[in-house]
Structures are given as structure tokens and as C-alpha cells.
Amino acid sequence: MYNSASKHIVIVAAYTGTMSNINPLGPPEVPHTRPQPRPEAASQYEPSAEPDSLNEHVEEPGDPDGLVAAEEHQRWLDNSPAPSAALEPQKKRRWPVVLLVAGLLLASAAGAYWFGSRKAAAPAARQTSNTSKAPAASAKTNPPVATKHYDSVTYTLGLDYPAEWLVSDTTAKLALSSPGVDLVDSGGAKVRGRAVLSVQNKLASIPNYPKAPALATLVSDKLTYKQPTAVQRAQTYLSFLTFTGTSGLDRLYVTGDTGYQQGQQIPETDIARGNPLVGISFELCGSNDCTASSQPAISVQAASWKASPLSKQLVEIIQSITLN
To answer: The pTM is what?
Structure first.
């Protein structure tokens, strides 16, 4: 039997044993749980069969001090593979790919630079070669010609002509004669001759013009005057005539607004309309002397005429004419 005092002691003792682990000043104690092992490491983990001498609570349920949980967590960490070891092979495998891509880029850049520099250098070399040869060829075929200016009071016009040409200004005509040059006649033979450009007032008939109409041995050229005046047209035709119906070139005339196709007939009346009448004829030099006032007329080869230096000089004279 026990009295009421002993009953209270027993109750206090019971409460004391139950609350011995509670800290009234700290946070409530969090129950300990065992961490779950990683799936890949589950097969590697096996609990030790021998009791741990450091853990006196192995067989006590609840593991109130967390020693068992800490020990098992440490054992799980020891058996888990290191993350750096698993990732290291992947890092090592990236370097060959990076090096390969960098090598390909460098090779492509080097190839593009080599191809571009070689392609740019080739035209430059060709252009330098062409430009160095062009002046020499131009100077040989078209040497610069010194010119003079002449104003005719009789025919009220002015013109420029090569300085080595001869000028004769009379009431019959204004004549400009070239020095002796090599020409090819209508038969293909080389001869020594000269060209004579004449300016005359309007004529009723053309001396030595054939009764049958002359033919255009070449297509007429349209020339532009360099400094036309108010009483002068801006452009004119230069026509090429043959009197014998062959491929020879006997005369050239300034025909104003009228041009002709090759083989077309040219009536005398078309030529006589010229005012002033500007014509070109060819003369044969006797004994290589081309200074005489009168020489026999010749017919030159039409096919090679336009490419001759003498043809270009005559065109320059006609284009320089200014009418007053």
C-alpha cells in the first residue's frame, strides 16, 4: 500500500523520464530519418554484418541520437562514385572535337586567302602588261601631228591642217596637199602618191565626172564638226566614189545631209549642190617628187583606205572647218 504522497512521486518520476530529452530553450527536435541511397549505388551498398562497437544504439529502435543515420550516410558517400570522375571522360572527349573544328576553320580561311590573293594578282599583272604596251603601239600607228590654222578670205572659212602639208589659196580653189606617202592603188600595187583636199565655190558641173552615175564604193561616214558656226550644220556625210565601177576609190566628197550605201548610184547633181564644194582626190608622185602643182590622178584601194593614217588626217581637217 502506498499513500497519496507516494502516488505523486511516481507520477513526477514518470513525467521526468518522459521529458528528459526535451530542451525548453531550443527548437523542437527534428526526428532523424535515414537517407535513401542512389539507385545506381544501391547494388554496391551492403550493411556490415558485425555490430559497430562505436554505436551502442544499433539495436535500439528510433536512433534518437542520429548516430546510426550518420554512420550509414557516411558509408553511402564512401560507396558512391565521385562526380568528377564520371564527368572527366566527357570533358576529355570534347577537346578532340574542338581542335578538329578549329583546324578546319583555319584551313578554310587560309585557302580562301590564297585563292583570293592569286585571283586579284593575275588581272593586275595582265593590266600592267597591257598598259605598258598600249602607248608604244599607239605612238607607232598614230604619232602626234603638229597642226596649223588657216583662214581663207576667198572662201570665208577656217580650218586646221598638218604643219607639213602645203596650202595654195587661189580664186579657182583652196588646195591642201599632203606630202608623199605610200599608197595602195586599185590594182593592189604600192605606189608613192599624195592626197589633195580642195575647196571650191558652188559649181554647175563637176570636172571629169563620169557620164554614167558614179557608185558608192564604201558606205558614207557621218562626221561631226568640232566647232560649227550659226551658218553651218552640226554634222555632214563624207561619201566615197568610184568612177570606173571597180573596187577603187577615185574621189571623196562632202555631201551634206545625203549619205549612200555601198554600190548605190551617186548622181552628179547631188555633188554639185555642195556650197562650198569640198572634195578629195589622189595624185601619183613622179620620181618621188610630190611638190609639183599638178600630178596624174590615181585610184586607190578602197578596202584599206579607212585604216590608213592619211584617211584619219583628212577626216580631222574636214571636222575642223568653220564657215563664216
So the answer is: 0.57
